[in-house]
Amino acid sequence: MVGDDTYNAFSLSRKKHHHCTLHDLVSMEQIEQLLQALHKIINVPIGLVSPESDLLLSIGWQPICEQFHRQHPVSAACCVDSNNQLQARLKHNKVAAAKCQNGLWDIAMPIVVDDRHVATLFLGQFFYDDEQVDTAFFQTQAEKYAFETDAYMDAVAQVPRISRQEAEDHISYAVGLVALLAELGYKNLQLAQEIEERKLAEYALREGERQYKALVENVPGVVYQCLNDDAYTLIFISEEIEGLTGYNAAQMVDTSASLASIIHPDDLPHVYECVNNAVARKEPYVISYRMCCKGGGYTWVEERGQGVWDETHTLRFLQGVIFDISERKKLEEERRSLEEQMARAQKLESLGVLAGGIAHDFNNLLVAILGHADLIFEEAAPNTNTYDSVNAIIQAAQRATNLTRQMLAYSGKGHFMVEPVNLSALVRDLAPLFENSIAPACRFQYELSDDAPPIYADAQQLKQLLTNLVTNAVESYEENVGAVTIRTGVAHCDVNFIENAYHNEQHPAGEYVYLEVADEGCGMCEETRRRLCDPFFTTKFTGRGLGMAAVLGIVRGHKGFMAVDSAPGKGSAVRVLFSAFAAERSAPASTPKQTGKKPRYGRILLVDDEIIVRNVVQKMLERGGFEVLVAQSGWEALQLLDDHREDIACILLDLTMPNMDGAKTLQAIREKNKRIPVILSSGYSEEEATSRLRKHQIAAFLQKPYKASTLVRLLQRVLQ
Questions:
Q1: 577 strand-pairing partners
Q2: pLDDT lower than 50: segments of the chain
Q3: Which of 241, 273, 534, 692 would you label with 716, given CA atoms 20 to 30 Å apart?
Q4: Domains plus CATH for the chain?
């Protein structure tokens, strides 16, 4: 019989074979041959019956049963009933015995394989040798079933007689023999099943490995397993790591390489912190960091992983996927850079509008201040306190005028006279000023190109730009002295260079003419460099700070851009770049030719919305010998033009007015009178003010603030 160890080892197989019959376990022909041989020895009929009482084998049946008992239905039923009773009384390793209703003894014993009843072996149709055969019973039975008495009694006489011990020995031997064969068959069946299961398991393992490998290879990232130690020692890593970093996956696993060793050292503390916190909470983790590459450099990756715990809640390892996000990082950086550029451009634009508006209003105030001061100055006697005070007021007003011009330059509205300018020639013209006045102690070095084409620009504005750059370079040495290098030339600028420059519009890649001022002074940190062109931002004493703002305004006004290269302790280089055809040559304002006739004085129509401007300009005009009509709006000016059509000799028109501005007023004037001279006045530059009005035949332009003498001379020239 199968023991406990075998039972445990093959429990799964038993479950699979619990419906096996004796036919499934052993050859019935082989059993029949063995039982035939046994019958020759013991001369006792042998029967083999299934648990369902189906006859499997019958060997050596006696004539009494074969020729008589089994032939009559009643006696045959007795045989079957006797067999069923024996089957019901069967116990493992026990012999069951019973005399059937036909008067013969039968004994039975179960054949059990692996705790399962697979068949029953019978020995029967015999008498025990210690009993007296009841002849009368059999004669009566012959009469009962109408058997032929003599033949029936001869059959009774042939029934074998054995001892009770022999009966038990015979049946035990036969059962053991059949059970052994059946058990061997069962073992073979189990072995075959085990081999099949092992083959299936090996196939499943190979298939699982194949599917896992296919899955890993198709994951768009690097699959890994590693220990949760300080080195993140690798257990497994997919081949994608080689495409990502250049390191071979097999070599890394064979050498139990450290995953931590290829994480950027600056990012490793962050990785430790995120993984440890997630493991402590038994949660997944998502980390972005830089991974070092074999050939140098690094690439940005995103790791999504988690811990793996066993049934004892012990952390076994970490596993996850590492994705290449370098392209995403690049796009994020480009977006951030674009957002910074847009914010910077919006800030510059907003500050430019603010500066321009302040400069305009300030210019109106300066018209009143400078105008009244000029009127008083003309009447004041020299060498008096009044004369000196008014002269000081005029000088202060002129300095304020320069300040407003810098504010206009910052706003990009400070052009005055656009003409071809050679940057190298401009530097040579200003070199004596720099060397003798601005920084006599500094060494100036010039690297000027004679092949650079000219640009169309305002020379005075560029001189201011260069002077401001040189002043900044000199001041970068603080208490020391050093070298200032001024360069000109042509440079090719790619898209990346242009995108990182200061500008307010898009510029294509290509060749640009440049002017550069470099120093070896204190340099700038990133914060200072970022705020370099903010109005009134300064690292020097309070009150400075429009220099670089004005530089940027001039550059923007000329449709150029500016690049700054600087680092603390390593000096600075500021390069401004212009297209050789950045702006078209401005057409000069039409000026009537002088005819040699004497000036014709007449009424001047003064149009300005600021009362302080109207008052002082009216006094200037009247003192200059002109009659003045005053209008505070465009509508009022048109009404006066209708009322005094023949009397008005010239119109002095302010550009910036509410409701109906100077441009609309001029257009309406031209619809009424195409020949009357109009002098346009504004705090903005001539080019900015007249760019939209050239087709309306402007006689002249007068920039605010101005002195009385300037106004009178201009009117006399226009009216000639």
A1: 514, 561
A2: 1-16, 415, 541-545, 582-600
A3: 692
A4: 4-192 (3.30.450), 219-324 (3.30.450.20), 418-578 (3.30.565.10), 603-719 (3.40.50.2300)
